[in-house]
Amino acid sequence: MWNKAKKHLMTGVSYMIPVVVAGGILLSLGVIIGEKTAVGEQLVNFGVWTLGLMVPMIAGYISYSIADRPGIAVGLASGVFAAELGTGYIGGILVGFFAGWITNQLKKIPMHTNIAVIKPIMIIPVLGIGASAIFMWLISIPLAPAMTGLENWLNTMSGSNLLILGFIISAMMAFDMGGPVNKIALAFCYATLAEGIYAPMAACWIGIMAAPFGLSLSTLLFPKKFSKSEKGNAIPAALMGSLGITEGAIPYAVATPLKVIPVITIGSGIGGGIALLLGAEAPIPAAIGIWGLPFVHSPFMLLLGLIIAVVIIAFTVGFLRKESDIYDNEDAGLSF
Amino acid sequence: MNIVAVTACPAGVAHTYMAKKGLEKAARKLGYKIKVETQGSMGIENKIEAKDLEKADIVILAVDTKIEKASRFDGKFIHEVPVAAAVKNAVKVIEDAVAKL
């Protein structure tokens, strides 16, 4: 049950990511050029419009994942309702599941073969979208104020609260290197991104990249403490890290879990907290990695947080590891 | 033993292809033939055709998302795992599939 739900959610995210990357970059380019210039203003508009597809896309493709092709129309429309009713990404996810479920129920309506053709073009879209509209309207009654509350709370966050928020997000991102904890933190960052709150995503970036960068650097600084395949993995891991993929860090964690996982969790957390405290904000998802840095607000603060995290990880892992930790296992290294 | 496999992950840029590499390497090591189709952000690549499927004894799905054209595999022996399983230990994934057959 949980696995199936996760698969539907991940399918939605998978179709949504390119839209968010494109919209985020257009928006950021516009802000960099200057919102007062004609070109900048238009770029901001195009970016905002593209990002407007985010909630419909996730709802539409969750529904597609559940109910196949007929689910797309119902899900997309429901996603627009979710966005317009102010329930954002969370509302979009919920209604996406509902849309898929109702579409599957409607498919089961028995119909004479002569009029069965109207089922996919009339019955399912009309009744499906109608039912989703009612569902969305009902859940927006508690959800919309809750989302506004969350938004206000995040917007007014400052000082030590930002530090804690950044620490938690970055630490969660690094903790299981792409596993379920990481995905929960990522989902939260997407949710805030959809509301126009960009700080959490900045912490997300650090949580993704600090571990692979830090561990690669560690192999350079302490070559005697790493096996041949681990050293060979350093460049692929760093490259993957720069593309927004944490998993390059896994081979190091597999070899000595207790000397790596706590270090990358805490190290990334510290870096993320500092970056947020200094005002780093990322309006584009971390999926494109370090190459998106020019589009970040306060890029130097983000870079500073990242460097702090990388240095902490590289040295701490280097000191904790002993030469006796080396064992060469051909399959431990990920070739990419 | 002929194996066909599909890999797919949410972002469709890394795990999908790492799992493909892992499965190919593992199959070579175990002495099986394998063809791995990827369904990443580029859509379907290295597509499993009907003639591949005819010969196949096992279908391995290392996927975290819904895959396209899943109905191709109806009636085949399917072993489904999360994409991460094929990245971390593809040998075990193939061995498990063979043991289940």
TrEMBL record, chain B:
Does the keyword Nucleotide-binding belong to this entry?
no
**InterPro entries, from UniProt?**
Bacterial_PTS_Sugar_Transport, PTS_EIIB-like_sf, PTS_EIIB_2, PTS_EIIB_2/3, PTS_IIB_fruc
Annotated SUPFAM superfamilies: PTS system IIB component-like
**Alphabetized Pfam families for the sequence:** PTS_IIB
Q: Which GO terms describe its molecular function?
A: kinase activity; protein-N(PI)-phosphohistidine-fructose phosphotransferase system transporter activity; protein-phosphocysteine-sugar phosphotransferase activity
Q: Which UniProt keywords apply?
A: Kinase, Phosphoprotein, Phosphotransferase system, Sugar transport, Transferase, Transport
Q: Which CDD domains match?
A: PTS_IIB_fructose
GO terms classed as biological process: phosphoenolpyruvate-dependent sugar phosphotransferase system
* Source superkingdom: Bacteria
Domain PTS EIIB type-2: from-to ranges: 1-99
Q: What cellular component GO annotations does this protein have?
A: plasma membrane
UniProt-recorded name of the protein: PTS fructose transporter subunit IIB
Q: Which organism does this sequence originate in? A: Thermoactinomyces mirandus
Q: What is the lineage of its organism?
A: Bacteria, Bacillati, Bacillota, Bacilli, Bacillales
